[in-house]
Design brief:
77% helix
Length: 247
């Protein structure tokens, strides 16, 4: 199978998950770039940020049009992660490939386990600003270090800490992902290695189209069912990456 076709398929799947779940889909971008498309771990995390930024911004527009973005809350949450995302993004380019791959596999497994936990149905009685800022800082660091959007952390935090409804949390998480990914990408300018735009461009285009389809899919299939399927796929990917590091 040609590299172009693989890039289109991988992009479509990741965009579909991102549009339907408001996050989590980008976690598959890095392993897809490494194992299917031959990127180094450093180049894959940088390329993933390009893909995630463009796809999240597109999906954000769709959710904002439906009124599902809490702009004030999302902006404050994202602002807390800008500096950590920038610093972690700058540091990641200088780390050994095994460290990046190992750290990524652990985070992917944690993301899958988080998705398998029952969703919170009721918002908290009061918002805890300190915890919200702390979560935003952690999310920014994860985004910058590993090249993932971090929506698997943002959505439950926006529901459980800031008290947003699930649909609002999904839309608002895309604002947070876009801002953090852009900050991390800025820090990596000139340090991303061989980015191979002939692969990144079709991958990104397919992901953007997939995000629109994912949003429509979410209205027809329960989010919990989609999330469980994706979580098991993610667990399998995390296990394979960890084995690759150990062996």
């Amino acid at each position: 199978m040609s590299v172009l076709i693989l890039a289109l398929i991988a992009g479509a799947v990741i965009g579909l998950a991102l549009g339907a779940l408001g996050g989590g889909g980008s976690v598959l971008a890095v392993p897809a770039l490494i194992y299917l498309l031959g990127f180094s771990p450093a180049s894959a995390t940088t390329a993933s940020l390009i893909i995630v930024t463009a796809t999240s911004a597109t999906a954000l527009y769709a959710h904002a049009r439906d009124g599902n973005v809490a702009w004030k809350v999302g902006t404050l949450f994202a602002a807390a992660g800008i500096v950590p995302a920038f610093l972690a993004g700058a540091a990641a380019g200088h780390l050994p490939a095994a460290v990046l791959t190992g750290a990524f596999s652990v985070v992917a497994a944690l993301a899958a386990l988080r998705m398998l936990r029952p969703a919170m149905s009721e918002p908290p009685e009061r918002v805890r600003p300190v915890k919200a800022v702390g979560t935003g800082v952690g999310l920014g660091a994860v985004t910058g270090f590993l090249g993932v959007g971090g929506g698997f952390l943002a959505v439950p935090a926006l529901v459980g800490v800031l008290g947003l409804r699930m649909k609002q949390a999904v839309g608002t998480s895309l604002l947070v992902i876009t801002v953090n990914s852009l900050a991390a990408l800025t820090a990596r300018t000139g340090t991303g290695g061989d980015l191979r735009w002939e692969v990144i461009a079709p991958f990104t285009g397919a992901a953007i189209l997939g995000a629109w389809d994912g949003k429509r899919l979410a209205s027809k299939i329960t989010g919990q069912a989609l999330q469980r399927v994706f979580a098991f796929v993610l667990l399998a990917v995390a296990a394979l990456m960890l084995i690759d590091v150990i062996v």
